[in-house]
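Recall that a protein's primary structure is simply its ordered list of amino acids. Everything else, from secondary elements to tertiary packing, is in principle encoded there. The following example makes that idea concrete.
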Amino acid sequence: MASFTGIVHQDKDDLFWFDDQAVKKAADVPRRAAWSGTTWYTTSAVSMARLIALMGPDDEAFGPTPERPLGVHFRWNDGKDRGYKVISSSLWGVRKRDPRDTEAELSYRMHACAQDGVMPRLSAAGTAIRRYMDVYDGRGGRPFTRQLPPRWRAMAHASFHGGPIVLTRGSARECVHIDMRAAYLDAMTRPLPVYGVLQDRKVGGWYTIEGASWDRIRDKIGFIEAEVHVDQALGEELGIPPLPVRLGFSTTFPTGTFSGCWPIQMVREAEDRGEVTVRTIHQWCFAPSSMPLFDEIAKDFGGCHQGKLLYTRFWGKWASKGGFLGQRSDDPPSGSIKSCGIWWGFDGVAPFSHQAPATYRPDLAALIAGFNHMQVMAAVRQLQPGSVVGLHVDAIWTTDIEGAEALINAEGSRWIEKQRGPARFYGPGVYHHNTRIAASGYDATALGPLTPETLALWSASPLNKDHRGTMQSRRWTGPPAMDATATSRPVHLEAGQTTPPVQGPNVNDSCWTTTGWLKREIRDQLEAGGRGIPPDRRPWQAIAEQGVPDGAT
């Protein structure tokens, strides 16, 4: 069972405390042999930028991006290589400011997992993934999981849209908030692509056929990059058009003619509803073999005390490329980025590497997210057109009270009512609905108790950065964070306004082997600095600068 030695916290005078030892500067950081190999967690009051300032020349910071450090690995050598990690308690979903509360909550969550037979690891995501690999991988007819080959990775990542997050107006006199119970848990039980090794033979896989028509593709399990058309009048009537795309500043649900990448099922469902026309297929791939890989572990999570925390971290972890490591250096390493006063370099899955972990399966994460998206959008289509005020990954706010009640009361429904009444919306996760106040990102310690008055002031201030994407992803009559009467309509696009969502070589490029890896001659050319690669193939060369395959394929 994973354990932690203690809690590192930061007091009101910005002084750090490692157990009972005060730490003001790097020289004060305790480096005790007895602590080597242990893990400490921070409270949410700890500034990661300040913690990083305590690093010495041998220490390393880490996180998913240079802008989001999650901890520091303090290292030293006293004849032996030693070190211990101090990491954010948010990896276990704990965001307490008080060290005693943080320790109590971490202990409770870890022990609750252990009591349910799930061995805790350093994070909730790691705990959940390890459970699958230890108990189900390669068992019950499932193959031993293998990493997704590079040929299919870019399409899988481009098709990973998460859940819909949309705000359509600034307020509603009367609306109801309904929530889908265990939305992603249900999505995890659906058939997923099989790829791996079963009884010493490879099974499943991903494939493509160049020049295939939409009629041949639409019933497959896979991904498609295509130019599609969504009628502007229909999109504005519905309020939430069916397909998301990324426009650089945020995810939006547009009308018009645009290119994107999605799970094939999402496009097929939208077409069946008469909402989308597929015009041009750029590339696609499919998995001919599928099975409900996660049905059994979904049942496990459904019966766990910490099940929701585990399954919400589980499904997205399959798309993790790894993260960044940060170090102090007078000479910045090649390709590094400076943030929080240190230099960061990517330390994850390189685009063409064949040494990714077996749990690197962005195709699984993208399809689970797509299943959830379809569940939410199917519910939206049963409500009055234009009645949806906002969507979250598993929640809907609507003025169609009767329609919401019908969804809740339907046989086998997973929808439940959270609250109803007058509502004021400022952004995703930022609203005042009846007696409930929510403000994602609000710091009560720094800004004071959350009240309707402080919520209104904070939501429109530069301190709240989350509302900007919402305002940019719709065409607004006014800023919703400042104007309660503001309404919006979908962004309208014309062909060419969206950038290609899939970065790197097309799945039909001749650089790939039939099994999905980069050909040896292309790898050799990349290792030689790109010499010998024809000019017309240079556009995808930039992605290779992140790394080349580790060894032969």
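The first strand starts at residue 6 and ends at 10. DSSP finds 17 helices and 30 strands in the chain.
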